């Protein structure tokens, strides 16, 4: 109970966005929503600004909700272990997304919003093992983002089974595609942080999120999709350890890292 009260207090004190974060957050929402609504600026081949603005506004609502869940998961997990998480917009990644949107006429979504920075809350890290910053912790905190998006997509997939709505369908698709892009090992996305923090953990998270996203897009039971994705992740994790990581850590010599006399 004490840890929960402490976490709630840290959320109240450190959760809020800085002005630079808010600026980057708003720009990210506007750009990503424009990308996913690019094909909806009219009826058929007829350009209609009114229809386009309406669909862009709906996309803004979808992107805002997804990004709030995404960043909130990272911030809360970070605060739970004594770090303040700061969102950093990736300008180059957003420009790449816009370029693909224009070239493909909105068919291809390239979603590369940005990454996070960690700020060490020294007073809240007292007593923790490995007191300072580390790639491993950075990766675990960042991975809370795509995991939360898969959970969000699963929740709305269940809702969509009872209340079918195009906006909910777009939210499910957007959250899943963003989770898949974010787990790729592209700096400064989550995948690069987790890959350099722990290849073993990355192999499991990567091989779970990708199948989970694909299975949730398909018309199958949500619980079955999640369970099957976890099973696939465990199998891939074991195979990665057996065929690569286990041999890699043996080093260049048959019986270990150092030459034997």
Architecture overview:
With 261 residues, the protein is mainly alpha-helical. It has two domains: 191 residues, no CATH class; 52 residues, no CATH class. It contains nine helices and four strands, in the order H-H-E-E-H-E-H-E-H-H-H-H-H. A two-stranded antiparallel sheet has the order 1-2. The protein has a two-stranded antiparallel ribbon with strand order 3-4. Strand 1 and strand 2 form a beta hairpin. Helix 2 crosses helix 3, helix 5 runs antiparallel to helix 6 and helix 5 runs parallel beside helix 8. The protein is globular and about 60 Å long. The termini are far apart. The mean pLDDT is 88.
Which descriptors apply to this entry?
261 residues, mainly alpha, two-stranded antiparallel sheet, 4 strands, 7% strand, globular
Give average pLDDT, whole number. 88
Share of residues in strands: 5-15%
Shape: globular
Q: How do the helices and strands follow one another from N- to C-terminus?
A: HHEEHEHEHHHHH
Structural class from helices and strands?
mainly alpha
| SS summary, helix count | 9
Helix proportion range: 55-70%
The domain tally reads 2
* Assembly state (oligomeric): single chain
- Which value, in Å, is the CA radius of gyration? 21 Å
Largest sheet: 2 strands, antiparallel
Strand order of the largest sheet: 1-2
Question: Which stretches are poorly predicted, pLDDT < 50 over at least 5 residues?
Answer: none
Distance between the first and last residues' Cα:
56 Å
* Count of strand segments: 4
């Amino acid at each position: 109970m004490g840890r929960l009260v402490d976490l709630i207090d840290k959320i109240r004190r450190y959760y809020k966005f800085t002005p630079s974060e808010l600026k980057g957050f708003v720009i990210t929402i506007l750009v990503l929503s424009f990308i996913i609504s690019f094909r909806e600026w009219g009826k058929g081949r007829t350009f209609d600004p009114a229809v386009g603005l309406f669909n862009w506004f709906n996309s803004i609502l979808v992107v805002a909700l997804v990004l709030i869940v995404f960043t909130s998961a990272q911030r809360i997990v970070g605060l739970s272990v004594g770090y303040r998480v700061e969102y950093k917009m990736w300008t180059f990644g957003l420009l790449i997304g816009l370029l693909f949107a224009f070239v493909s006429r909105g068919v291809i979504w390239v979603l590369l919003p940005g990454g996070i920075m960690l700020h060490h809350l020294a007073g809240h890290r007292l007593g923790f093992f490995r007191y300072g910053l580390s790639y491993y912790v950075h990766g675990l905190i960042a991975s809370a983002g795509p995991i939360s998006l898969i959970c969000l997509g699963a929740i709305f997939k269940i809702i969509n089974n009872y209340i079918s709505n195009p906006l909910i369908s777009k939210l499910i698709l957007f959250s899943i595609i963003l989770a898949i892009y974010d787990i790729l090992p592209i700096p400064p996305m989550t995948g690069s942080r987790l890959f350099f923090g722990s290849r073993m953990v990355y192999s499991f998270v990567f091989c779970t999120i990708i199948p989970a996203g694909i299975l949730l897009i398909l018309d199958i039971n949500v619980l079955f999709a999640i369970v099957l994705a976890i099973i696939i992740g465990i199998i891939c994790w074991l195979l990665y350890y057996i065929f690569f990581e286990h041999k890699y850590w043996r080093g260049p010599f048959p019986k270990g890292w150092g030459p034997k006399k």
